[in-house]
Specification:
Elements lengths: L8 H13 L2 H8 L3 H15 L4 E3 L4 E3 L1 H28 L4 E8 H5 L2 H11 L3 E8 L1 H10 L4 E5 L7 E15 L13 H4 L3 E4 L5 H13 L4 E5 L3 H9 L5 E4 L3 H6 L3 E4 L6 E9 L6 H13 L18
């Protein structure tokens, strides 16, 4: 890789001003420096570049072909620096900017929309991008720099991540209102064995945890239909395709679809959920503001043992 010349923004400004004025005297007056100082600056830049930028004569200063190309480049660099500086000033005040949040589907589908709405009420010029996926996808997004932070399960994450805990989510079984299990106050894994299940993909953290405990208990679960979105899980359960096991955060969505949610017992499974970001990277001001909103508004879901009454409807 070629070595780049060590040039300052002041030196770039000096070259651009000489080219614009066509005179060292006029450029020096505009920049409020002495003409000898300006001449030394131009000579230093030319030496660093190894090319002549200006043809000097007693009457005028002409920009060489190499000088014209360099002046165009210098003007672009200076323009980018000015824009970046103004943006950073505004970002530091949380007036504008962009934050990218990656979240597991149960969060993206339930609590996150309301939190985003409240955050944008006070910071309308900040652009938020929400990415949703499974646990591994969220960690990959944060690790690669695609996302500023991730909201996911944090019982076991690598040391490279900083973790801010939000609470724990217990697992619940979601069934249609007329299902035999709807009369139970709690449902065991053994009770699920006869029924078809609507499940998340194998790579989902919740699916892996459930399958692991079912294997230990010797209970063969019937994963009849696999879907990738919680909205689809709820629609399939409502349509009678099967029943589902979901994290506690997804229970309000199930109840709003006129489904019944019962806690999973024997075993009573739960997962810690929280925010992760890279220790070495930290958070931008806008991302820190969103984290503060998230911690303030996060609701620990503790659903009632009895279903609410209401009309049937889609998720």
């Amino acid at each position: 890789m070629a070595t780049l010349p060590d040039l300052s923004s002041r030196e770039l400004q000096a070259i651009c001003m000489v080219a614009e004025c066509g005179s060292f005297v006029a450029a020096a007056l505009t920049l409020n420096i002495s003409q000898p100082a300006l001449t030394r600056t131009v000579q230093r830049v030319e030496k660093a570049l190894g090319v002549e930028l200006f043809h000097r004569s007693t009457r005028k200063v002409e920009t060489t072909a190499a000088g014209q190309e360099f002046v165009s480049l210098a003007n672009r660099v200076l323009s980018d620096l000015r824009i970046s500086y103004e943006n950073m000033r505004e970002i530091s005040d949380e007036q504008r900017g962009r934050s990218i949040v990656s979240a597991v589907m149960s969060v993206a589908y339930t609590q996150l929309p309301g939190i985003v709405a409240r955050y944008r009420e006070s910071r309308p010029r900040i652009e938020l991008q929400i990415r949703e996926g499974v646990h591994g996808t969220v960690l990959d997004d944060v690790r690669s720099g695609v996302a500023d932070m991730g909201i996911t399960y944090v019982d076991e994450v690598a040391d490279e991540f900083s973790v801010v805990s939000l609470g724990r989510e217990a697992f619940h079984v979601v069934v249609p209102r007329n299902h035999p299990l709807s009369a139970e106050t709690g449902v065991t894994l053994e009770q699920l064995a006869p029924y078809a299940m609507v499940s998340l993909p194998r790579e989902a953290q919740t699916r892996r945890l459930i399958d692991s405990y079912a294997s230990i208990a010797g209970v063969p679960l019937r994963h009849a239909v696999t879907v990738s979105q919680f909205a689809t899980v709820m629609q399939c359960v409502w349509a009678g395709v099967g029943i589902a096991i979901v994290p506690g955060g997804a229970v309000p969505a199930a109840l709003s679809a006129d489904l019944v949610a019962r806690p999973l017992i024997k075993p009573a499974l739960s997962q810690a959920i929280g925010v992760v970001f890279l220790k070495e990277r930290g958070l931008t001001p806008s991302a820190s503001g969103f984290l503060a909103q998230l911690r303030s508004d996060w609701v620990q879901v503790v659903p009632s043992a009895r279903p609410r009454r209401g009309r049937r409807g889609g998720a």
